[in-house]
Amino acid sequence: METPLTPLEFMRRARRLYPDREAVVDGPRRFTYAAFFDRCDRWSAALQALGVAQGDRVAYIAPNTHAQLESFYAVPQIGAVLVPVNYRLAADEFRYLIEHSGATVVCADGDYLDAVDGIRAQLGGVRHFVALDRGREGWLDYEGLLAASSGQPRRPEIGERDLLTINYTSGTTSRPKGVMITHRNAWMNSVGMLAHITMSPADAYLWTLPMFHANGWTFTWTVTAAGAKHVCLRKVEPAAVFRLATAENITWLCAAPTVLIALANAPAELKGFAPRGVQVMTAGAPPAAVTIERLEEGLGWSVIQIYGLTETAPAISICEPRPEHRGLTTAERARIKARQGVELITSGELRVVDDHGAEVPADGETIGEIVARGNVVMAGYYRDPDATQKVMGDGWFHTGDAAVVHPDGYVEIRDRLKDVIISGGENISSVEVESTLLGHEAVQEIAVVGMPDEKWGEAPHAFVVFKPGASATADDLRAFCRARLAHFKTPHSFTAVAELPKTATGKIQKFILRGGRTNLSKQ
Ligand code: AMP
């Protein structure tokens, strides 16, 4: 006997087992699992009444609210495909994603109604616009539709290979691509996650990670599978994170390293409110060992790293703790925790290969590209067979991430392949230089990029954000690096900046940094 592998199974089970448990907290609003799923059913039936059929696309532009969370159940349970849009994009990018996905319904949070109204005339394929949290002329009202709904959606048969979501990549060099995630992909990722972490109805999860980012690393479904509590958060600020963490007894959160840096460096009076023992999952960019150490030592939180891409649903590795790590000091353990780790039980095979597809030796030095194959790899890019063929045509998904393999089999990312700095014929890992400089007491954040250099071809250049009230000269920073790194890896020059350009998912936009600089030594 077979039933399709789909995260909707978690909904069916949670509805039966946890009806009276608290499911969602969003500001003053609180819903039990029974109430939450009743709202999802109402929205599913309302969508059907609006003409949404199996296979149709429904786009959302919303921060982490209960309405956004409801979409992860209400849309797929009628066989429709959810398109969670990065709300930090510009209006013209919204237009591109909505048109490209062919969405017939667009649901938007109040903060984005103006942006959508501005492009509305160009969205001929959209039949309905739904305002999620406040009424406006020309928009359907979400709460009104829920109240009027029969709450009895028709549930079509859903195959595990059917599309669940289309998640658009950030597209730094080209137009964003629509990653097609199937029900099976998402189920595999959630179950794999729960095989490696402990989460139960006793847990409370804080939404510091945007739900649109790879479906919140599937925690939109994983938390429900565990019967735990979702606590929504519109905007990630350390004060709000610490306050909610205490008020709601938070035990878990996910966040990109840039958020962890902000939390670790928050003023002591704020950190004083933070509960201890919170488990933190990080990914999206390489976390530095010092950041992990500061969170573990300073806040008493415990960090675990996963790695993956939107295209892999997303996790393809986890830095699995081993008993032999227990005897290490916090600093030594943080160095291991900063590695991306090993494949998950359900994520399939992961290799690091050279240009000819041969595995690199596990020597912690030879750099290759991470490739993966298995049940979490996407069905392809929506309406883009050429791009799909390019990344997975040979039976392996090519990540574009450059990594080494340590003798214990743990993988460590050194760079995006295109960001590796080649100076005088030597490879320099910007990640290694960045992690070193983050250990300097004045440095809050750092980005190292390769800049054209007459003598060396390329030379490392560092952009530095200092901690409030702190500073250092280029000579200080250079000496700090030289004492810890090979000379050729030391940045030739430094630029102090107020902040680094970043995507909404916490990635530093190095292509913008390469565009211009002024030397710190000349300031
Ligand atoms: P996205 O599809 O937006 O999640 O971006 C995927 C990319 O983020 C990967 O190809 C990596 O370059 C980067 N990334 C994700 N997780 C990690 C991690 N744990 N360490 C280093 N880089 C990561």
Helices and strands in order, then pairings?
Elements: H1 8-17, E1 22-26, E2 29-32, H2 33-49, E3 57-61, H3 66-74, E4 81-85, H4 91-101, E5 105-108, H5 113-119, E6 128-131, E7 140-141, H6 142-148, E8 163-168, E9 178-182, H7 183-196, E10 204-206, H8 214-217, H9 219-225, E11 229-231, H10 238-247, E12 252-255, H11 257-264, H12 268-271, E13 279-282, H13 289-299, E14 302-308, E15 315-318, H14 330-337, E16 349-353, E17 368-373, E18 380-381, H15 385-392, E19 397-405, E20 411-416, E21 421-423, E22 426-428, H16 430-437, E23 443-453, E24 457-466, H17 474-482, E25 493-496, H18 510-513
Parallel strand pairs: 1-11, 3-4, 3-5, 5-6, 6-7, 10-11, 10-12, 12-13, 13-14, 24-25
Antiparallel strand pairs: 1-2, 8-9, 9-18, 14-15, 16-17, 17-19, 19-20, 21-22, 23-24
The structure holds adenosine monophosphate (AMP).
Adenosine monophosphate binds next to strand 14, strand 19 and strand 20.
What does this 3D model show about the protein?
Strands 2-1-11-10-12-13-14-15 form an 8-stranded mixed sheet, with helices on both faces. The radius of gyration is 23 Å and the shape is globular. Helix 4 crosses helix 5 (113-119), helix 11 (257-264) packs across helix 13 and helix 13 (289-299) packs across helix 14 (330-337). The chain has 3 domains: 12-189, ANL, N-terminal domain (Rossmann fold, 3-Layer(aba) Sandwich), CATH 3.40.50; 236-416, Rossmann fold; 420-522, ANL, C-terminal domain (GMP Synthetase, Chain A, domain 3, 2-Layer Sandwich). It contains 18 helices and 25 strands. It is an alpha/beta fold. The termini are far apart. Bound molecules: adenosine monophosphate.
